[in-house]
Amino acid sequence: MTMTEPEEKLPFHLRGNYAPVQVEETAFDLDVIGELPPELCGTYLRNGANPASGRSPHWFAGDGMIHGIRLGDGRAQWYRNRFVQTRSLTEPGVRMIGADGSVDRTIGVNNTHVIRHADRILALVESSFPCELSPELETLGVYDYDGRLDSAMTAHPKECPVTGELHFFGYHWAPPYLTYHRVDASGALVQTEVIDVPGPTMIHDFSITETQVIFMDLPVVFDIERAMTGGMPFRWDDDYGARLGVMPRGVPGVQPTWYDIEPCYVFHPMNSFDDDGAVVLDAARYPALWRDDPREFDNDSVLHRWRIDLASGAVTETRLDDRQMEFPRVAESLVGLRNRFGYGVATFGDTNAIVKYDLETDASSVHDFGNGRIPGEAVFVPSEGSVAEDDGWLLLFVYDKAADSSSFVVLSAADPTAAPIAEVPLPQRVPFGFHGSWLAD
Ligand SMILES: [Fe+2]
To answer: What integer best gives the mean pLDDT of the chain?
Structure first.
């Protein structure tokens, strides 16, 4: 952006706290308001889109930037933010898509999520291969599972807490449209399956249970005309239909069984689990997406449950809440297993809050950060030796609009309505971003 351009003329993703920051800061021994639990030893990392040029055609298209805070001994030991040094950033002019339509998966913006699996820290974006990072957020390079990865990799792989396996997929606008991969606990890619779907759709995320993988084939389809204009190449299609695909884990060569559902879109499941011959999938469900303009978000996603009886094929759908909610998370130890609690960023009226859902009692509790204080995704971290599912903390970044500044905040997950346990003011604004992880020592 040029300094003379009025901010109100910019698209939403370049304004206010969506606007990128350009400085890579490093700060040590930050001041703490309240008390950081001494047993929180590790690093909280969060990825987001942060266009280095100040410009990007869509919120999802900016260069990746990781914001990280390292905790230990009750201290906020450091804060760092670093660009993910992707080839698209370090080699100006490189193109992911060649003139002949070929695709180079080593080029991407890697701006969506950051995870650790088998001792590798990976910055992810759904178009491309992962980028490996050091614990201090230096980019080590593209990672392709020793050359075995032959598709893009979703930014939302699922690590099974029982087996340690990482399950993921890649999608593409040309056949094969959808490819599933399984990496074992040691980090070796051990299974790849091409999944049959009718056409190219935007598949942002998926989910697992202890025995199944669940794909979402939903009617946001690839649009070549929008692709030619350089924008987000997807649009809603009333004719595509919508279906969930349930595929047994660890059984090579078996296609999913598909179950039709009412058309909708889901970026993010909260969790899924096996339930007495059925699978249950909870997710932030949009009634439609990008019907007119793929730059618009109507913010009308609510928590929704599908239950699929695998024997009869019966599918039931239940709206679980009325509040707009996104960025749902559960305890990592319960990914694919029955969870009672989930945490999301909810918007109602002028309020932006963290909501804790109790799916057993249908109750919920809210942490409203107050006037103009806007939370991002909250990551649950269990306390040492915890027994109760919600015995632990929620870690997140919060933006204060009036001060135009950001903090790292620790809430009690058992009682998120209580005042924050600790707050760490950060040396610079953390733009609204996407997803993150806690990397325990
Ligand atoms: Fe996402």
So the answer is: 95
